[in-house]
């Protein structure tokens, strides 16, 4: 690689130059991979930019090393419309793994004026799995189980020594039941895996998504609490953050970041992976320019904050109304706003602020609206948390600017 090329990679799902930390999470997953009979599945949740997608990718490699097949994709709204869409999704993902298994062979004449014959081989593709689904009598649950079991049995008897299959779905917070329309795709997914696992089939779910994911699973089926090992991705610790900053430039003879610079990046990023990559990319560029001019590197804190505000935060902020912004500013003035907050402390704090005070019912209605807009989320204990990290500090900066 060109030594002066910037190695840092801010962006959704971009593999970082060095994946720091996450050792405990990998060990939990390795334990799940060792299950004789699969009873526990993985749910990986965290705020935006906490590193779910790239961790899922490295778990894929761990699983494959242990002889598991890995399939799946991002869950978009359409997979979650109804039971049939979800079944199509699963059959399509399974077919990727089964399509090389030959289920029928036919001798036919080769094309042209020749007496040579050739063998037509048909693999177990999507159409074949979907027809097992269609032809099995009963409910969507029976049909889906029949199709997936059929695929698994074919894989197992193809003698390839496969340990099992992992169905991995990112952005899985998009999975939803729609009771008002009598559609239950999420329940179908849980029921199907629970039932197939009870029969001893080595199929495992690995779901990743925003913090709303796990409560959603448990709301859908209470047994989901026992069915999933829930792993929440926190920000990286200080030593891990330092690794994420410094390892990618080890051996780079053009740029060195001193202790103080690394410390400044640790503080600014709060250990959140996306921010680490973003800030490091900016610092790297700034240092390269200054060194080119023969000057010492300096962390352009103010400029980076401004860029981060306009690239990352302001799109979210612009979705809020004036009154919602007032409420968010009150929340941002709470000491523990980056953790969680409740209605009564917001009401109390609003009395000290120079805004029209908020009543408790005002606050709870507005929190619900802000959660629907994706700015907050409600945790299982009825408290709220910002949906993006370091949002409180951004809001305070906004107040300083006006
Ligand atoms: N452990 C890590 N060490 C260093 N960088 C990381 C780490 N995890 C993630 N990153 C970087 O952080 C950024 C965000 O990662 P990723 O897209 O996986 O987050 P995410 O949680 O899936 O976000 P979203 O909720 O938006 O889907 C990427 O630029 C990635 O390279
Ligand atoms: Mg992601």
Structure description:
β3 and β4 form a beta hairpin. This protein is of the alpha/beta class and 402 residues long. It has 16 helices and nine strands. The protein has three domains: 23-101 and 129-232, Rossmann fold, CATH 3.40.50; 238-315; 319-401, Arc Repressor Mutant, subunit A (Orthogonal Bundle). α3 runs parallel beside α5 and α5 (140-157) crosses α6 (185-198). Strands 2-5-6-1-7 form a five-stranded parallel beta sheet, sandwiched between helices. It has helices spanning 23-33, 52-65, 83-98, 126-135, 140-157, 185-198, 213-220, 224-227, 238-246, 259-269, 273-292, 301-317, 322-332, 343-352, 360-372, 391-401; strands spanning 41-45, 68-74, 102-109, 117-123, 164-170, 203-209, 228-232, 376-378, 384-386. Magnesium ion (MG) is lined by residues 12-13, 52-53, 170.
């Amino acid at each position: 690689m060109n030594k002066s090329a910037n190695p840092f990679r801010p962006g959704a799902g971009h593999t970082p130059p060095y994946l720091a930390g996450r050792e405990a999470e990998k060990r939990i997953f390795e334990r799940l991979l060792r299950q004789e009979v699969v009873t526990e599945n993985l749910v990986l949740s965290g705020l935006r930019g906490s590193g779910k997608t790239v961790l899922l990718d490295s778990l894929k490699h761990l699983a494959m090393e242990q002889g598991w097949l890995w399939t799946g994709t991002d869950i978009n709204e359409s997979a979650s419309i109804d039971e049939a869409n979800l079944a199509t999704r699963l059959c399509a993902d399974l077919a990727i793994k089964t399509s090389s298994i030959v289920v029928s062979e036919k001798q036919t004449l080769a094309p042209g004026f020749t007496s040579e014959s050739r063998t037509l081989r048909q693999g177990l593709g999507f159409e074949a799995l979907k027809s097992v689904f269609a032809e099995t009598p009963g409910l969507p649950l029976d049909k889906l189980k029949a199709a997936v079991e059929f695929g698994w049995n074919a894989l197992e008897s193809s003698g390839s020594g496969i340990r099992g299959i992992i169905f991995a779905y990112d952005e899985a917070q998009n999975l939803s039941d729609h009771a008002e329309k009598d559609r239950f795709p999420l329940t179908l997914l849980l029921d199907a895996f629970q039932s197939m696992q009870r029969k001893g089939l080595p199929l495992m779910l690995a779901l990743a998504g925003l913090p709303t994911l796990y409560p959603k699973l448990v709301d859908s089926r209470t047994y989901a609490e026992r069915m999933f090992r829930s792993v929440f991705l926190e920000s990286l610790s200080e030593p891990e953050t330092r690794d994420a900053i410094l390892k990618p430039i080890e051996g780079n003879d053009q740029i060195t970041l001193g202790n103080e610079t690394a410390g400044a990046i640790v503080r600014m990023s709060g250990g959140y992976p996306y921010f680490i990559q973003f800030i490091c990319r900016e610092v790297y560029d700034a240092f390269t320019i200054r060194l080119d001019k023969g000057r010492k590197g300096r962390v352009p804190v103010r400029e980076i904050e401004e860029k981060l505000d306009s690239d990352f935060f302001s799109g979210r902020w612009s979705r809020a109304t004036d009154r919602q912004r007032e409420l968010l500013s009150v929340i941002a003035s709470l000491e523990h706003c980056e953790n969680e907050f409740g209605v009564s402390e917001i009401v109390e704090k609003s009395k000290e602020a120079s805004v029209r005070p908020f009543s408790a019912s005002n606050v709870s209605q507005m929190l619900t609206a802000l959660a629907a807009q994706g700015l907050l989320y409600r945790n299982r204990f009825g408290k709220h948390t910002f949906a993006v990290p370091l949002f409180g500090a951004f809001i305070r900066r906004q107040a300083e600017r006006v």
